[in-house]
Amino acid sequence: MRFLALLLPAAAFCVDVKATWPNSTKTISWWYAADGGWRETVAQIEAHLEVVSSVQTYCGYQVSDDGRIIGDLSSHCAHFFPAITKLGVRAELTLGGGNCSIVSYRTLWADTTESPNVLLRATLAANASGLNIDLEPQSDSCNGDPTGTTADAAIYATWLAAVRDLFHTRGLRVTADVADWSPVLSEYATLAPAVDRLQDMETYNADSFGDWMSAYVNIINPTIPRAAAGIGLGVWLDNTDNGTWSVTPASATQRVAQAIADGVQELAMFRLLPQANPAWPLDFWWDALLPFMRQ
User: Could you tell me the pTM of the whole model?
Assistant: First the structure.
């Protein structure tokens, strides 16, 4: 993979985004792993445009062991992003995956000049409307114990703010994924002012409504601006992988109603699959999400 080393010249690129972005309200963003047919995914999105505001996708960029942004735009995203943009759905590039080392992250976060420009260059090359940052300090394999400290969260926030400020000059937004389980990512009040929105992984990981509420109250609290809170909702098999879905239709309706009642402005959906196979429960989610967008 090549290193995107060139700084972005001023006014080198122009993007067409709505004036309300990145601070628009009532957004439903979907995380999508580019592991399926993009044409089928586009067709699914087109059938449910009212509840798909943006799609966030890994496109081949990640953090190297020595703390640089490396990669190239994947062929999948090169086809997928223009297709959904034509439908009026925003495409957002996701940074993350492949490296979760806090040592690598600390090197990256110390660079508040070049790396934000590298990310902007990559985002504009993808003709995307924003950047989702999914850095999860664990082990190099991304399967180990959480690492990092609250001091790292402050360093991360400084870096995030540098990225956000640069992206705002082009009308692009920056979101960051957060979670209770991480000493770095659980510092919601520290991270919230540095991005346009936090997207909470803890809430989309919750199986029961009670578990969801336990995570929900940690990000919906007075120390975090309400506009900064993106609430996660997961549509996947439960952790036992026994063939049952972890979120029922009734629970999905409860969760959306709670978010509406509290004035939440963004729901972060995990995850969008290219097709139902054989019983992916998106059918009840489409209807459950409609009240959120119609409020």
Answer: 0.89
